[in-house]
Every structure is written in C-alpha cells, then in structure tokens.
Amino acid sequence: MNQRSRALLAAVLLPVISVIAGFVVAGLAVALSGSDPWQSFYALFQGAFINPRALPETLIATTPYIFLGLGVALGFRAGLFNIGAEGQFYIGALFGVFIGYNLHGLPAIVHILLALLAGILGGFLWAAVPGILKARFGAHEVITTIMLNYVAFALVNFLINNGPMVDKASSAPRTPYIDPAAQLPILASGTRLHAGLLLALLAIPVIWFLLDRTTIGFRIRTVGFSPTAARAAGISVAWTLLATMGISGGLAGIAGADEVLGVSHYMPPSFSTGYGFDAIAVALLARSNPWAILPAAFLFGALSSGSRFMQFQTQVSADVISVVQATVIMFIAAPVLFQWIFRLRRAPAPAIKIASETEGAAL
Amino acid sequence: MDLVIEWGQVHALLGENGAGKTTLMNVVYGLVRADNGEIIYDGSPATIHGPTDAIRLGIGMVHQHFMLIPPLTVAENIILGHETVGPVSTVDVAKARKQVSALATRYQLEVDPAARVANLSVGMQQRVEILKTLYRGARLLIMDEPTAVLTPQEAQGLFEILRGLAKEGKAIIFITHKLGEVIDIADRITVMRHGKVVATTTPGESSPADLARLMVGRPVMLQVNKQPARPGKAVMQLQHLVVEDERRQTAVNGVDLEVRSGEIVGIAGVEGNGQNELVEALVGLRQPRAGTILLNGRDVTRTSARTFISLGVGHIPADRHRMGIVLEHSIADNLVLATYDRPPFASGIVRQLGAVLSYAKKLVKAFDIRAKSPAQPVASLSGGNQQKVVAARELGRNPKVLIASQPTRGLDVGSIEFIHKQIVTQRDAGLGVLLVSSELDEVLSLADRVAVMYRGQIVGVLEGKDAERERIGLMMAGAA
User: Fold this and answer.
1) What pLDDT is recorded for position A339?
2) Distance from CA of B322 to the nearest CA of A (A)
3) Does the pTM of the predicted model rise above 0.90?
4) CB contact under 8 A, B379 and A361
C-alpha cells in the first residue's frame, strides 16, 4: 500500500469504521438492557431524518457542532486542547443575548451582526484568559479551560438567576426576549431552521483557508507540530498560542450567540446541553480537518436530535447515544487498538524503528 | 548476512548511519528479534530472546548513551541487578566494593568503587559501563560508538583498555563510523552498507580511502578541498558573553570571539562545555546574562530570534529533529520556515504557494535533496537529505553569518562531503561561519581558526596551520 492511499484510508476509513463500531457496541448495550437494537436504531434514524421536521431539527443541532468543532479542531492544530468550548459558548451566548435584548430599533442586519460580533468577542475574551496564562506562565490549558467552564456557568447563573440580567416579568428565571430585529431569519417556513446554518457552513471554508493558506495558519500548524522548531525559525510561540486560543474561543462564542439569536431567543441559566464537550469528539472524529467537521457535526446533530424520538418511541434511554459517542472517541483516540482489532496492516517491525533511532524516522 | 567474530580480537563494525550496525548488535544482545537466520555462539546455535539470555551467554553491551544511575556509587551501579545479598536481604555493599576493586585491578580499569557516578567524567563513566559487563561475566563486549563522547586522549585510553581485554581472550565488537579509529584499534574490520556486509578485511589490507569507498559505495574525498581563507570585516563579535543554562548555572563564562566574513571559525570541545548555550545565544534563542553580541557592528544582544534571522544570521542547529525541521511539514514548507511570511512567499497574510513551490524546486535541485517532490513530508527523507533541507534553507536565504552546530552529525559520508563543500563555497563567497562540532576531525578539516572551549570559556584560539590534534586534545581536557 503506498503512502497516499494509506493516508486516505486513515482519514476516511478509520472514522467511518469507528462510527460503525460505536453503533455495534451501543447496540449490544441496548440488547443487554432487553430492548431490540434494530428497532431502537430505526427509531433513531426516523427521529433524525424521516419524521416531519426531523431533518431541520438535525440541522439546527448540527449548526453549533460545526462552529464548536472548528474551534476545538483549530486548537488541536496548534497543539492546544481547548476543553473550555462549553464555557466560551456560554459567554458568547451571554454577550449575544445582552446585545439582543438591550438594543432596539436597529435594522435587522446591523443588530444581528452586532450580536454575533459580541458573541465572538465574549468567547474570544473567555478563551484569551487561558491563552495568556499559557503564553505568559506556561499554565496548562486543559486545567485552566476546565476551571473557567465552571466560572462561566456560575457567572451566567448569577446574572440570569435573579441577577441583573433576569427578566422580572417572567416566572421562570431567564433573560428577556431579544429584539425581533436580532432574530436570525428562518430558512424554511414551518420549521425552526435558521440562517445560522449558513453562517456555520461559511465558517468551514474560512477556517480551512486560514489554516491552509495564510501565514497565521502556517504559524499555528508549525507550532502544533514542533514548538521548538517554530521558535528556532523566529516564530513567536506564545503569540501563536494566544491567537489560536482566541480564535478558537471566538468560534465557540459565535456558536453561543447563534443559538440565542436563532433558536431560543432568550437565555436561561442552564443553556447548553453539553455542545462544547461533544465538540471535542466532533473535532477528534474529523481529525481536526475543517472539511471533515461537516460530516462529523452532522452525525452528532443527527444523534442528538434522533435520540429524543428514540427514547419516546422505544423507551430506550437517550443516554445510549453517549455510548455511541464514547465508543467512537475510543476508536479514534486509540488507532493502535483499532488496527489491532481490524488488522488493517501489519504493525511495522520494531526492529526498523530501533535501527532508525539515530535517524529518527517519523513515527 | 554473515559475520564471524573470533575470541581475542577487536572486530570493528564499520558503516554509515542507518547501515544496520546497531540493529545487528541489538539482535545479538536480544533487544530485537531477527526475522530469520541464526546466531552461532561458541560453536552451538544460541537462542537470544532478551538481554537476560545475552548476559547469561556472556554477551555484554556498552550503549552509546550510558545506562548508569548517577546518584548511585560505582559499585552500586555495577552490581545492579546482580546484587550480592548479605544477611536479612540487605545489599552487601562492602563485599560489592571488594569485588569491583578486584575486577578493576585485574583489567587495569582504575576507578574508585565508592565514588558517585554523577561526579565522574564521561571517560570514567564508560569504564564503569565496561566493568559492569565484565562483572556480569561478559566474554563478548559490544561497544556502540564508544568514542562519540570522548576527547582524543580519552579515546586513546579506551583503546588501551580494549586491547588489554582482547589479550585476555575476550572478543570485542566495536561499532563506529569513524575511519581513523578503525585503523587504530581493529584486528578485523567488517564494513556494512544498506544492511549487508560488503567486506571483511584488516587494517593492513585496506587504507582509509578503501574503507570509505566500501562504506559509501563510491570513491570519497576524505579531505575538504579549500583555499586559504581571505577574511574580510568582522560580521559577528562577541564581547565578554555570559550565558546561563536552564538551571541558571553559568554555561558560557565570558567569551570574546570574532567571526569575519570569508572565514570559518571552528569551536572544538567535548560536548557539554557550553557550546549549546553559546549557539543559542548567537541565534537569539537565549538571552545572555551579560556581554554583547554585535552583528555588523550593531548591538543585537537583547533582541529576538526573529531579529537575528532578519539581520542575516543562519542557523544549522545541532538537534535537527527538535529545532531544524518540522517533520510533518512538506519539504517546501520546511524550506521557507523562516521566511514564510515575506514576499514573494506571502502577500499580506495570504501565502503564495506557487512561489514557495518554485523556490523549493530550485533549492531541492541546488542542494541535491533526493526527493520525489518538494510537496512530500520531510519525515519521508533520510537523515542526510533532511539535513540538506536545513542547510538549503539557511544558506538559501544568503546569510551574512552562519552558526553551524554539529552540521553533519549522524550523516552518511556522502552528505557530509556535500554539506562541507557547501559551507566552503559560501565561505569563499564571503560568508562568515562559526562551526561548532564535537568531531575534532570536522573542525580541523574545515576551520580556518580553531577556538577551544572548556567549561564555558575559550581556552585558546589557534590558527588553522598551528592547530595540531594533540594540542587541541589537551586543551579540550582543560590541561593546557
């Protein structure tokens, strides 16, 4: 097998088979719990694609996964593990809703743009904190972003649950509704499908271009591959990490604002259903390739929207979807395990590796 | 492949990096399993599944990088894994010391069994490694590139020891890629190329030139062909430079040095005497604590690597994989690693991949980089070609001064020849070169002036014609 076809195999076949393996394992779990896996998965499929308004709902769920997946993937390319997408998503939504309900009388296009930019700014600022901590003091972003998630949840809870942003006219704790001008237009009448999907689809080529065709992307990838070589080549590693973290957070932020402007039109204290965490899986499944984010996000969108119908129809808990997701991640994250099970190729003899130790062939 | 080792001989295994010498020896030592073929040891087939089997058979290996535990004493290191146990399961240290002393006396490997390994010189540590194998009853000793870390004098000392061991009837396999050593020490020589034995000969039958030809597969120029230097103005001046290492210890202690255009200044020294820190300071990667670096008269001491690059400092780093190249990037991207954001390779923030590719094609050709296409990942190249990528990038942007640190380490003879030729050509075109190398032969054959570095200081600067091996060797050891 030549190098090219092997690379293609790794890029396409491994994720696909990982997904299949995910369903197999989840199917076993369903069977063990006494239900029929075929029936359950058929209900899942119905709920994601067949039922009235199923496909639009799937696409609605796909939208934040695209933004967030791109953000996490961008971080991966610089060697950063941004686990804080969830918190950045919250802050983005918070900034977006603030602009959404506080301004009135603006033309829709202006209001929407302002609110989305506010969302980007919120996510950017929230991610810049771990970015600065990393760049300046070397604090590990996994720790700082996780911690900032909790700060974000608490801050949102404080502001919206009886805090300064609560809608006093409402019985449930939530912010006021955003101005109608700030609402994203609906794409298909009779559905909730909003224009955010188009923005997300637009973001894919933009991020691809950024990564593959600009000097910023080159810096990001170089730092991700080898910070030491980047430094020796005069690239500022600290600046690059900070910028990457900021852009990654900006993408999470726009996802949050987009969710407010397109779907809920207000913000409750507990807002997300773990989109930011699932996005890590989306980015892993897409192997951090911007184009591959689209099918990965679509899969996760379908799983999330189909699972509700499946639970309703077959009494199989929607948590089964977590089994699918977890198995997929396990296979993606452990390609060795995968190759061992499927014997895709003979593992290269260790003899060769040891021999080339001084030559340092790439592993 | 066939290889016959006889008792009582020093058998040199000569070959370029990647020729399979180390792999072969790892098979003998049981670290790697052979695909097929057999090992006949002392007349009967031997099955060696791991180092334990090898040790039981009396095979000992001294690795290129020592396997010692620095905080422990010499005696403790030697008996490790084969401890003499006293009453109540305690290690009988006194007995161990006695045994080690006896062993050391018998083989004339004087070393204090009570000394801590951390406090020993590299040469002494190597003795401990040899003693360790002898303690385990080794009759066949495998030495993997043992002189890489030694001064010339220490190497001579090692040769004495090895000859003594051979006289005792032990067999020694001496892995190396240095021709001179082979002639000095070996009774028999086996030359390997691309995993095959290409010849078995003796120092009497073959000249260094013959051996080089066998190693590379074609005639090789052993001497660097160069005209006397015609140095011009100083391009880089160091004034009382003080640089600290990671642990904030002074590594470079007041270095004054000048590199003029059109000359190659060599820095000789045993590794770890401050060369790495000096190099990092000279390319802007490490802030000196005191002193001044002038580039063409301009003070650049407290600027960034970026400034050094833009002012025409080229850098061939010692650690190619960590600092020289990005393995995952293509050859083309590696060739513009320091200039990716300048015209014509970028306009604004948009990269101009066409310009990058055509520039890469030009360099691939000029530097004879053996690749199918400039778009292939640099990881797919051999070590020699990877180093050519580094050299092409750094020389390709026409630097004023080149800081070359171990520029040919781990390379095959052919690539060494090529890179040396490039450096000399650029010198003749007016480049100032600072060459740091722990291979004294490289410094002697390339440099127009030789500065010897010892414990962070330049202990002497010799003009090329006065630079004798002996004298430099003594200076490297701090003895002159």
Assistant:
1) 57
2) 6
3) no
4) yes
Q: In the prediction, which pLDDT does B1 show? A: 59
First vs last C-alpha separation in chain B: 47
Give DSSP secondary structure letters for B29-74: TTSS--SS--EEETTEEE---SHHHHHHHTEEEE-SS----TTSBH
Q: How far apart are CA B52 and CA B31, in angstroms?
A: 10
C-alpha–C-alpha distance, residues A19 and A329, integer Å: 9
Report yes or no: B355 at the A interface, CB cutoff 8 Å: no
Q: What is the pLDDT of residues B36-91, one digit of tens each?
A: 777 777 777 877 888 888 888 888 888 877 889 989 999 889 888 777 666 666 77
**Low-confidence spans in chain B with pLDDT less than 70:** 1, 17-18, 84-89, 220-222, 480
Q: Residue B477 corresponds to which tokens in the numbers above?
A: 């050891």
If DSSP codes are grouped into helix, strand and coil, which group holds residue A189? coil
User: What are the boundaries of each domain within chain A?
Assistant: 3-342
Among chain B residues, the shortest Cα distance to A234 is held by B306
Tell me the C-alpha distance between B368 and B384, whole Å: 11
Of B17, B310, B379, the CB nearest to A362: B379
Interface of B with A in 436-475 (CB under 8 A): none
Asked if the Cβ–Cβ distance from A231 to B305 is below 8 Å, we say yes
Fold of A3-342: ABC transporter involved in vitamin B12 uptake, BtuC (1.10.3470)
ipTM of the complex: 0.84
B23 contacts A226? CB cut-off 8 A: no
CB contact under 8 A, B326 and A228: no
3-state secondary structure of B254: strand
Distance from CA of B146 to the nearest CA of A (A): 15
A226-266 confidence digits (pLDDT tens): 999 999 999 999 999 999 999 999 999 999 999 999 999 99
Determine the distance from the C-alpha atom of residue A94 to the mean position of all C-alpha atoms in its chain, rounded to a whole number: 18
| Cβ within 8 Å of A, B 410-429 | 410
Q: How far is A211 from chain B (nearest CA, A)?
A: 10
Residue A283: which of A74, A19, A63 has the closest Cα?
A: A74
B4 touches chain A (CB under 8 A): no
Residue A351: closest CA among chain B residues belongs to which residue?
Answer: B32
Check CB contact of B196 with chain A, cutoff 8 Å. no
Residues A316-363 pLDDT 10s: 888 888 888 888 878 777 765 655 555 544 433 333 222 222 332 232
3-state secondary structure A22-67: HHHHHHHHHHHCCCCHHHHHHHHHHHHHHCCCHHHHHHHHHHHHHH
